[in-house]
Design a protein that fits this description.
heterodimer; A: Methyltransferase, Methionine Synthase (B12-binding Domains), Chain A, domain 1; Rossmann fold; 9 helices; B: about 475 residues; eight-stranded parallel beta sheet; four-stranded mixed beta sheet; 16 helices; about 40% helix; about 15% strand; binds CO-5-methoxybenzimidazolylcobamide
Amino acid sequence: MSVDAIFQSILERKRSDIAPLVQAEIDAGTEISVILNDGLIGAMDVVGRQFGDGLLFVPELLVAAETMKTGLEVLRPKLVGSEITNRGTVVIGTVQGDLHDIGKNLVSMMVEGAGFAVVDLGVDVAPERFLEAAREHRPQVVGLSALLTTSMPAMRRCIELFEDAEIDVKIIVGGAPVNQEYADEIGADGYGSDAPGAVRLIKRLVTET
Amino acid sequence: MFSETPDIVPFGTSSRRELLTQTQLDTLQGGTLRLLDEVGVRFPSRRALELFAEHGARVDWEEEIVRIPPDLVRDAMSTAPRSFVLGGREERFDLLLDGCHSYVATDGTGVHVVDLETRRIRASCKEDVAMMARVCDALPMVSFFWPPVGAQDYGATAPLHQCHAGLTNTLKHVRGGMTVPPRLAPYVVEMATAVAGGAGALRKRPPVCANFCTIAPMSQDGDSIDNALMYAEAGIPMSFMAMPTMGSTAPATPLGALVMGDAEVVSGMVLVQLAFPGAPVIHSNLVSLMHPRTGGYVADVPIPTGWISVQMAHAWGVPSLGGGSLSVGSPEVGWSAGLDSGIGALTIPLYGGEICGDLGLTGGSMILYPELIILQHEACCFAYELLEGFEFDEADMALDVIAEVGPRGHFLSQKHTRKHIRDFRLPPAEGADGLPRDPQEAALEEFKRLHETHRPRPLPDEVLAELDRILAAADRESEGMG
Ligand code: B1M
């Protein structure tokens, strides 16, 4: 049995090919974990490396991620109730008072492409909304993005709210004016300087938990 | 003892070239009108939606989207003034936005500063804004002061403190009305009124203008729109600035980004004209590119989007903010900063936008290298002298002097030589010995000299006290806002 065709269709970004390929593997009795890890996630790891090496452009990365998502949708009914899961769930959003979302969207896309389920809350997200989403989706990681120095304090408020609510989740921060020092100061669990960095950080934090 | 602030020196427009033909401009404007009519713009502001509905635009109340018929756009835009004044402390610092001058402005609002003494990068603070205002006050080619960095030592009132640091440290016009929560916006009006010397004077020669960014694609920011209406009522001029990024928030073609940004900007200006016909508005459409490999922000692409947006602004009959830009993409002051600055300076008179230049920041408007302003000012002086400073005087052919020297002589001992040898400006990055110096080192030295010695005349004591009172009230109000 081989998931090569699935793997290949992601590398070649053939969005319309992948669903029947995944279905064919399921029908052929290939183990679900093999389709997921060796096929879908494995291919996205390669895509991620190609992006990191500058071989792929952002829109191509996006289509590869969407191809993988299409495949994942076919697999999803088999995952429900099984021990096999995706890599984890990440809730992400741009903090209150801030409407910048280009960077946050990029991070969401790459995290999703790396095999995580992403719940994107959009922009101008109040701390209470992050908390609500964390209660609802039980993510391993909550990601806060801020581009304005005047909206950065909303990151601190969010972390304080999570501490008060005693929710067990890792909170990471990022955005152009944010740095490691600020992340440490407000008690965040990590700082991502760019989208690939955020993916590495999330992978590490999820393994630790 | 206070220092004399030199007169401001704008570029003229004798070197301006039109890039697009009238037919091409009409095509673009047709695109804008179609987008406004068919796609519409999101205005998350009740007041704005009501104003549009009252004037016959089609309002989708649920989605908060306004679709504006072409005739309504044209009628509203016809009330926008083509020329008006941005005031300085004295009339000689006024900017006349009339299409015949290009005024050089600083860039803003960055968040990091390369510290003057430690040379380490740190978060910006109010004193950095004050320092830049004082130094810019001494640089004649800088006519318009946009606080280059944020006053991060203040919270929600940071933009008010940036405005204050500008108004109290330079005699030049200040772009002070940045995005603040609408409850704090009246304090900007109060500060501008105090400095202008009353509400009537504010309307005539407003010492402060504001800027509001639209949110690509095809949206406005609710707070900005509410503030814009408040400022327009008081007579504070404002720019609507679109920042479409090709590939992410805008189509990946320059014309697509330009037409979409234009539609966003025009929608804001239409609203202001419907509410307050004749209110001074400025068009600004800054197209950038999403870095295809990293998604990063690339402002300095060699495509003439700035040039075209100036023409588009003028086609609407309003002044333009943007056009020639010295903005530096790389984080460092190196070769690429030199390239961006040199070429950018030359494009100012070529494009002919009213307010342009964007001096002082690197890293895509993020990092302040204090000495960069000196280098970029120099680039502007160079461009000015090259394109504006040359005067044709027949006597300068010096035919009689050449005849006197004749073949195989020299001009060293000619009186004519002694008379004119000081006409030329020497490269500034040069020691007294005539040997070249590291330009950045020389610029830093000059920056420090100006920083230590240039003391612009302060505002009258009672105005300073009034500004302090306004700021204290705003700070208290912002604490109450949590
Ligand atoms: C969860 O974990 C993580 C981990 C990593 C994370 C992460 C989360 N989030 C991001 N990352 C990281 O990964 C991403 C990919 O590598 C990176 O994301 P970035 O977002 O950094 O990078 C993006 C891929 C590309 N970068 C960007 O898209 C931002 C570029 C700049 C130029 C910028 C833009 C484009 C915009 N703006 Co605005 N804008 C600026 C920006 C200056 C700059 N050079 O950054 C900045 C941030 N803006 C600023 C300002 C002032 C404003 N903006 C405003 C509006 C806008 C636009 C709408 C026009 C537009 C945003 C469009 C959009 N949909 O996002 C206004 C605010 C609106 C609001 N309430 O939010 C307004 C207030 C302007 C106004 N007067 O209206 C300045 C902030 C100054 C300050 N003191 O904080 C600013 C530095 C520009 C400037 N020099 O003036 C990393 O940071």
